[in-house]
Amino acid sequence: MKKKLSMKERLFVGSLIFGLFFGAGNLIFPIQMGQEAGENILKANLGFLITGIGLPFLGIIAFGLSSSRDLYELSSKVGKKYGLIFTTVLYLVIGPFFAMPRLASTSFEIALSPFLPENSQKITLFMFSFFFFLIVWFFSRKPSKILDYVGKFLTPLFLVLLFSLLILAFINPLGTVNGSSVQATYESSAFFKGFTNGYNTLDALAALAFGMIIIENIQNLGIKKPSLVAKEATKSGFIGIILMGIIYTLLSLLGAMSLGTFSLNKNGGITLALVAQHYLGTAGSVLLAAIVIVACLKTAIGLSTAFGRTFNELYPSKSYSFFTVSCILLATLIANVGLNEIIQISLPVLMFIYPLAMTLILMGLFNRFIGNKSDVFKCVTYLTMFAGFFDALNSLPESLKESTFVSSLLSFASKFIPFFTSGLGWITIALLGLIIGLLIDKKKNLS
Q1: Does residue 403 come out as left (phi exceeding 0), alpha (psi in the -120 to 50 range) or beta?
Q2: Taking Cα atoms as reference points, which of 222, 202, 207 lies closest to residue 68?
Q3: Distance CA 166, CA 127 (A)
Q4: What sections of the protein cross the membrane (predicted)?
Q5: Do residues 153 and 288 share a domain?
Q6: How far, CA to CA in Å, does 47 sit from each of 77, 179, 265, 356?
Q7: How far is it, in rounded angstroms, from Cα 156 to Cα 211?
Q8: 189: domain range?
């Protein structure tokens, strides 16, 4: 039995991990954060890296350490019914409801939208999203080939294209980081703002969704023993995650430097388009279009594959093909809502589900100590759900937050939940749940 991967195989798996994670939000959110954080970008970027690369990496390791085959098995430690509901909701969020539509709308927003008249945007977006997801469907038909499609071809192509643009941007910078303007939300709490911005990448959620694909590809390369699979997933994951961190940092610095030439934009896609055009003109726009479309396609292929396989296992009465096609059709329709609208709608949902994902990852990491103590999993999860509810309310549009009912709930949370205003109130609540769960478990064992 094979005991370890070769360096070449490890690089391929690392490339697969990077390719699965790095999609639309990974391009547009760091550069937008750079524009908003200005000279405080290093603090904001540090917070962003914790949730943007730290949590996904821990998520990959958690699967190996908890000996869980997939998200359903891991989340079922809370309870079978919770496992089914949480797995279903998470895959809908990172699949057809938010992440996949955002991949298509981001590609369109950056690659085509700047060159089209206003009155043709809607019909062109529909046609683009149709062909985008047609390609996704074509590559999603054979999930066993995903390492070849993403790890060996699409990711290397994407990296060559992206670094071509980044090298130009840093050889001849648009401005300097020092002295660049700082938006109000980044003046006093840049680190915590960057931390919560990392939620938007969806990568901690993706780690839970892609765990099965990563583990199976390592097994297909000849590693069968669970402890060795976990070890190789950690080593390969480190390669992919470090690469993501480097690119995040370069993009966020580019965003801050761009303020020396461009004004603050409403999303990072617009800034990225302006940067490419500034350096290379029409050729830059073509290069950026290729970068974005390749980045989004490879992640969309991974998401549709993971969605189809998971739903086929959860609800076996329907086939993998049925769920994959349904996912792609729904994502095509939602993509036509528009990029800014998708981001705005998804934020409250992410603020609710992200803490639940993070606590699940952390409990998976400490599986050696927690084991299958269901009381611990239940107390941590249900109390975190309570904190996540208030975080979701706090991320609603200002018009909704001004209502008497919502404002009174938010006032209660800011008074009684530590770190709530920083978006980290779930941490103390989850710790409280851990203590309560351990005490209940200890009492049961003594009685």
Answers
A1: beta
A2: 207
A3: 30
A4: 46-66, 82-103, 123-141, 153-171, 198-215, 236-259, 279-308, 320-339, 345-367, 379-396, 416-440
A5: yes
A6: 30, 21, 22, 19
A7: 21
A8: 7-336
Question: Looking at per-residue confidence, does 365 or 356 come out higher?
Answer: 356
Query: What would the 3-class secondary structure string for 141-182 be?
Result: CCHHHHHHHHHHHHHHHHHHHHHHHHHHHHHCCCCCCCCCCC
User: Rg of the chain's alpha carbons, rounded to an integer?
Assistant: 22
Domain boundary among 303, 336, 369: 336
Which of the four pLDDT bands, split at 50, 70 and 90, describes residue 133? very high
CATH of the domain at 116: 1.20.1740.10
The residue to which tokens 């917070």 are assigned: 47
Residues 168 and 246 in one domain: yes
- Listed in sequence order, the residues at least 6 apart from 30 whose beta carbon sits closer than 8 Å to its beta carbon are 45, 48, 52, 247, 248, 249, 251, 252, 255, 268
CB 48 within 8 A of CB 250: no
What average pLDDT does the segment 285-304 reach?
A: 83
For residue 75, count other CB atoms closer than 10 A to its CB.
26
Could you tell me the pLDDT band of residue 1, with boundaries at 50, 70 and 90? low
In a domain, 170, yes or no: yes
Please give the pLDDT value at position 217.
Answer: 79
Q: What is the domain count for the chain? A: 2
Are residues 229 and 169 part of one domain? Answer: yes
CA-based nearest residue to 149, from 83, 217, 66, 205: 217
Q: State whether 355 and 332 are in the same domain.
A: no
Residue type, 395: S
Q: Which residues contact 284 (CB under 8 A, 6 or more apart)?
A: 165, 275, 276, 277, 278
Please indicate, yes or no, whether residues 286 and 355 belong to a single structural domain of this protein. Answer: no
Q: Please tell me the predicted confidence (pLDDT) of residue 430.
A: 92
Q: What are 171's two structure tokens?
A: 């050889």
Phi, psi (rounded to 5 degrees) for 63: -65, -45
